[in-house]
Amino acid sequence: MNLNIAPGARILVRSEEWLVRTAESSADGGHLVVCEGISELVRGTEAHFLTQLEGEENIQVLDPAATVLVPDTSPKFTSALLYIESLWLRSAPNDSQIRLSQQSVMKSHEYQFDPARIALKQPRPRILIADNVGLGKTLEAGILATELIQRGRGKRILVITLKSMLTQFQKEWWSRFSIPLVRLDSVGLARVRDRIPANHNPFNYYQKTIISMDTLKNNLEYRNYLEKAYWDIIVIDECHNVAMRANDQGSSLRARLARLLSRRSDALILLSATPHDGSAKSFASLIHLLDRTVIPDPDNYTSEDFREKGLVVRRFKNDIKGQVEGDFPERITGRLAATATSTEECAYTALLEVPFTQAGTRQSGRGYELQRIGMQKALFSSPAAAIQSTEGRLKKLEALPTPTPDVLKERAALADFLEALRQIGKPQFSKYQLLLDTLRLGSYVWTGKDPKDRLVLFSERIETLSWLQENLAADLGLKPNQVALLHGGLPDTEQQELVDRFGRENDPVRILLCSDVASEGLNLHYFCHRIVHFDMPWSLMTYLQRNGRVDRFGQTERPVILYLQTDAKNETIKGDQRILEVLQKKDEQANTNLGDPLAFLDKYDEEKEAEEVMGFMAQGLDASAVEQLMDTTAENSVTNQLDMFTAIMASLGAQTTAPTPTATAIEEKSLFPSYYAFAKSALEELQKNTLSGLQWNHSDDAQTLTVTAPRDLEARLRQIPREAQHKPYVLSAKRETIIEAMDSARQAKAEEDTWPKTQYLWPQHPIAEWLSDRVISEFRGHKAPVLHSPKLAKGEQAFLLAGTVPNRKGQAVVVDWQVAVRQGGGAFTLEPFAEFAERAGLAAEKLPNPGRPVPTGLQEALPAAVAVMRAHMVKAQQEFTTRTRPELDKQLAELDRLRDKQLALQFDDAPKTLSKKQEIEKDFEAYKGWIHDTMETEPQPFLQVIAAICSVEPLPASPLPAAETATLSGERRG
């Protein structure tokens, strides 16, 4: 690229002036330059210019040495200071420092910033955040996204999550980080179709969107749109759902969509507390989404293949305990057992007498036992679930055209079993009576009267939950609308609405009956710290996910978790129940000591874990034997290839849990006492310039601004969620005010009112971004303001200059603000901006404006100052290249090694080998291109003259020509 274009540059294109936001390589061999209009005709307009199409000769980069110096006549140089501050806020380099996200609306801890620091060190920020349930992966992803946005690398974002979590994720990112995601659920999609032209790609129309994988999977139209869109950041939540399973070849639609998405973004953030299903191939598929170069053979690899890449972060509660005192109250658990009634014992006996058949024949052995245990699992849930399963089995057998004698015997036995089940009414259902007694009378007494003390009740079977919904309200003295049922069969909008309602204090719901659709990701802890497992889980992963709904970051009460079980007298049934008790014991043991309960079964998949437990029962193992097997599995897991994941995660956790001196976020220099003061001053200045449609007021005590958006701002705000478009817009700079607004919004009855009415006033809010753009655009015409400081020596001249070294993608890798200073006619020397600002008294409301014109000779001195800064930045560019070249060479050599290793692999047949090797070559060449583009710089640094500062000189004896006394305020009015 011959043009010296970098973020912050001013260019002339098509006779209009533009401010460059980003400049990246394009597919046609040129560059794509994304700009914001500055001159009057295009002000506030975003434009994308292709240098090959426009012709580089038609794009003029304004020469910094030709910047026109003009006086600022605003009181206390407010206009100039706003201009300087706005540009300063935009000057974050592409390093791994935390620069803004520490100011987001959250009670933050150091461990939450580690994924961002690790990802920002990569040529492409790509990371799997695999922290345990409840540690705040959504917030950690928001931190990384915020840092990328600040670096100009997060304009377009796509989030993929579960349909039940769309609204929750959307609200979290908007309320805490001011990241606006347009929700494309079933209602949102219809709304989008009404708002955009026919056949337009909604992923291009909206810059930041959130959609469920199920919607993408089931909607061919939107899958096709994916292939024609590109994002800066893609987030895939609960990413274990898109991993390749051990028994497929990556042919599942979810896996294929994930592979497509992985190629459609720069940054990729994967989130999952359970990212491993027990197979090396499955975990390799997730790593492959992040980086296609690191694992040569997905069936045979070691941690060394990706250990140094910084692709995965995983921590458990114990790893970060020292950082989160008080934020993770220790949970209370209890297993409550009811003695089986005689009616239930009869049902157990009837079940054991059923001669299950396979292919019409009664066969003993493992297959028979698994059939019995499958039915037993339903019975352990509830009679209603067992009745549904039994009726389904009978219907299947009765449909056989020529039943065998064995089938007839099974049908008769099933009919007896069904009759025994129907005899179990509410009084005979011991576990249900135990639940009622526990909530009415026990040590865990719960009345349902306190809206801040709610109950989540889990069961695997919807039939059980439906039966509980029919009976619980009346038996506990509640109204029917105080018990709600959440399951996967509900439409996405109903699932989201129900979760929202459960978090509202004034909503009548007191008990939420949940299937395991609610066990992933949902925040159910706002007014709830109680969970009841109505049936004991058959999977350790189920324990982990369910309990994480209330035992999570932000919980203020001690979680109370109860497990209900029926104690049978029948020895076979009793033995199987004891095995379920071992699972509960191991989950609690892991919570207290080990950290990861999944190591005990080493399956990392709910279905596989349940199958393993059923296998224990089918073998007739007793509880002590099962416990011994599980302990041995956990002890030996470090030598098992499948547990390589756990071993490397433990190492990564050890590296990233403790805060280090370098972990502190950067405290940026500011010319204003607070961001509120800056925003207020900016609005005052814009109002002086009679900006049409702008109306606003403020409260200094509350640090709140209320803004009625003018037309150009209103056009921008169409990109934020419809529910967040509260007019007029109320913004507060106090985080505690935003937290109160979030808490208050959760109590609203109407869905559209559950979004906070007060929004966070900080640099990332769209209104704040608009303010900075307007302030910068006020200084159009390639001009820079002149300030006068009484603290400078007589005759002292200073030029504030910003230097940027962009990489080949146009991203700023070195940013340096220096002040070129001289006294008299001497040579210019450079002084760091922060030091000079302190010395010269550059601060809002601190610098009186004496109303002086531009001093004689100041304009003529500018080229010399620019030349000194250029030499400084050329040296900085050389130092950057010298510093990064060894790492660049190391990465390229490592890529060559990995490529050769992958090319040496043998595949099934020659045609497949050839095509696979061509794909490998393509992947490695693409990644090499990324490394070159991000670690190598453009030929020349970019310079910008921000302002000139000089001493206060006496007024000249005679007036200057009118052209030389034109003020910035006069320019704006013109």
Task: Describe, in short, the structure shown.
The protein has 974 residues and is α/β, with parallel strands linked by helices. 41% of the residues lie in helices and 17% in strands. The chain folds into six domains: 62 residues, SH3 type barrels, CATH 2.30.30; 219 residues, no CATH class; 210 residues, 3-Layer(aba) Sandwich (Rossmann fold); 81 residues, no CATH class; 228 residues, Rossmann fold (3-Layer(aba) Sandwich); 88 residues, no CATH class.
Give a topology summary.
Elements: E1 10-13, E2 16-25, E3 31-37, E4 46-50, H1 51-54, E5 59-61, E6 68-71, H2 78-89, H3 114-120, E7 126-129, H4 137-150, E8 157-161, H5 166-177, E9 182-183, H6 186-195, H7 202-205, E10 208-212, H8 213-218, H9 220-226, E11 231-236, H10 253-262, E12 265-271, H11 280-290, E13 312-313, E14 332-339, H12 342-352, E15 357-358, E16 361-362, H13 366-381, H14 383-398, H15 405-422, H16 430-440, E17 454-458, H17 462-475, E18 483-486, H18 492-502, E19 511-514, E20 528-533, H19 540-547, E21 560-567, H20 571-594, H21 606-618, H22 623-636, H23 644-656, H24 675-688, E22 695-699, E23 704-708, H25 711-716, E24 729-732, H26 735-745, E25 758-760, H27 766-777, E26 783-789, E27 796-806, E28 812-823, E29 829-832, H28 833-840, H29 858-903, H30 910-935, E30 942-951, H31 968-973
Parallel strand pairs: 6-26, 7-12, 7-13, 8-10, 8-11, 9-10, 11-12, 14-21, 17-19, 17-20, 18-19, 20-21, 24-25, 26-30
Antiparallel strand pairs: 1-2, 1-5, 2-3, 3-4, 15-16, 22-23, 23-24, 27-28, 27-30, 28-29
Helix pairs in contact: 2-24, 2-27, 3-4, 4-5, 12-15, 13-14, 13-21, 14-15, 14-17, 20-22, 24-27, 29-30
